[in-house]
Automatic annotation (TrEMBL):
One of its GO terms (cellular component) is nucleus. It comes from the Eukaryota. InterPro entries: BCP1_family. Signal peptide: none annotated. Belongs to the BCP1 family. This is Protein BCCIP homolog. It comes from Rodentolepis nana (Dwarf tapeworm). Pfam families: BCCIP.
Amino acid sequence: MCAKKSKRGDEESDEDFVKLELEGFSPEKDDRDGIIQMLKQLLPKTANLRFACLADYIIGREKIGTVVKYSDYEADGDDDEDIVFSITSLISLFEPDITQYPVIADLRKFLETFINSSKSSNSDASAIVKVITGASSEKPALLINERYVNLPVEVAEKSVSSLLDEINVLPENEKPTHIIVLTRAIKSPDSSELIYIQPEMESVRKFALATSETNVVTPTVDDENETITFVTMVVDVSSLPEIVDNIATQST
């Protein structure tokens, strides 16, 4: 996989491609800090959640999940090799996890409150909340799919494809029926059009059964306020193969 790096000289500028040998691994204890960082990047600043507990939950799910790191991670002891470039997993928002893990109950409650505060139509927000709470026996799971911003769509395609395979072999009582997708976007300065931070999420939206948008104002390093639009979608698990194919098309 390649990440683009720009180098600028005194008289001219050129662009290099720095080769990053990355590989997917099952999450483990050494990845805890990196996963926490990814969770803080994904979830709104208003989420008063125990991110360390969420990271422990993700690590504890031995049957599911991928972290992307340097391919020679196990062979090199440098601190830089501990970097988690991407995390893809699921957090089950249904029983028995809701009862066994208080942090999951907290997460579900936060999502319910957050979506109810959205500027979207009441019908869409209500539909998402009903799925999250399992009002009609749905078994929802929150998709955790976060990466460094400058990494290509290919990372998401490979990780989500692996996730689909992992879901397919889960015991029936652990398989979700719906996936909750939470992603970020900003408004175009010239229009009200959303620019997705993860570009592939724009196409995922067409598979959504319901969608809500919630604006969150956060301070920047320059002490200026920035408005991030959090887009929440609910998709049927049966749509995942087509979603993966769609993302794969964008990564080629």
